[in-house]
């Protein structure tokens, strides 16, 4: 018997009647500005190189210390900012270009009432942290992580209903131009899957110039592996910008 009863009814996330969009949703809106088409064409025209980078507990803690004590943050929030900024720097994007860090937010406990514990099916929306390249690269960790946190905080019951209604009215897709979509898979239990030959040692690669995944580091409950693909011409640069081993070594010694 399942410990939690399965709940299959999807009507809990049906659009309202009549549907209405109560909030701006930048994750679906393409800014009217130059360079977006150029950036998209560049990304699509380049051969991709997969990049896998490990962040140990010590390295993640080092990033978090940049915000203490004025700002508390999660590992996901600080790594999303760190990887997103490295991605922007590596691509050498125009300073005035507005870029988006998109990431999924589980809404099961954000709905009112909350969705049942055994609710099956998708129950997430995309949150959007948006700023100009100049703002993201010139500011410190507090600013960038603050954007990620603010994007998460607006996702409540009213926001989710507005997203559902927007999709009902427009049947739209997220705007992925000048965007990096970051998804955390750290709580899916992938590191515990055993098909009869033992637990996994590694997962990869990701063949997409848009999607970035965080996975649980095998053997380290507080460590993470980041998987993404970037244009081959900037892969080494991106890896160097993400790496923080030297910073941690200097701090310890």
TrEMBL record:
<dbReference type="InterPro" id="IPR023213">
    <property type="entry name" value="CAT-like_dom_sf"/>
</dbReference>
<dbReference type="Pfam" id="PF02458">
    <property type="entry name" value="Transferase"/>
</dbReference>
<keyword id="KW-0012">Acyltransferase</keyword>
<protein>
    <submittedName>
        <fullName>Uncharacterized protein</fullName>
    </submittedName>
</protein>
<comment type="similarity">
    <text>Belongs to the plant acyltransferase family.</text>
</comment>
<dbReference type="InterPro" id="IPR050317">
    <property type="entry name" value="Plant_Fungal_Acyltransferase"/>
</dbReference>
<dbReference type="GO" id="GO:0016747">
    <property type="term" value="F:acyltransferase activity, transferring groups other than amino-acyl groups"/>
</dbReference>
<keyword id="KW-0808">Transferase</keyword>
């Amino acid at each position: 018997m399942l410990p939690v009863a399965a709940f299959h009814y999807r009507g809990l996330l049906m659009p309202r009647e009549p549907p209405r969009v109560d909030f701006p949703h930048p994750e679906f809106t393409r800014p009217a500005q130059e360079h977006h088409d150029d950036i998209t064409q560049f990304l699509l025209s380049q051969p991709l190189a997969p990049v896998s980078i490990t962040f140990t507990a010590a390295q993640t803690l080092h990033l978090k210390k940049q915000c203490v004590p004025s700002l508390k943050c999660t590992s996901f929030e600080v790594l999303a900012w760190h990887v997103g900024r490295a991605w922007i720097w590596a691509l050498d994007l125009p300073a005035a270009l507005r870029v988006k860090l998109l990431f999924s937010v589980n809404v099961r406990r954000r709905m009112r009432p909350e969705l049942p514990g055994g609710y099956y099916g998708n129950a997430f929306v995309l949150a959007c942290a948006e700023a100009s390249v100049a703002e993201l690269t010139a500011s410190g960790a507090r600013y960038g992580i603050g954007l990620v946190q603010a994007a998460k905080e607006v996702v409540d019951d009213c926001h989710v209903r507005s997203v559902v209604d927007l999709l009902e009215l427009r049947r739209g897709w997220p705007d992925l131009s000048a965007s990096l979509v970051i998804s955390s898979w750290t709580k899916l239990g992938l590191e515990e899957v055993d098909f009869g030959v033992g637990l996994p040692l590694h997962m990869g690669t990701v063949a997409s110039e848009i999607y970035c995944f965080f996975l649980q580091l095998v053997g380290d409950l507080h460590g993470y592996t980041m998987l993404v693909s970037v244009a081959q011409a900037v892969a080494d640069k991106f890896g160097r910008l993400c790496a923080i081993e030297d910073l941690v070594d200097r701090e310890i010694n």
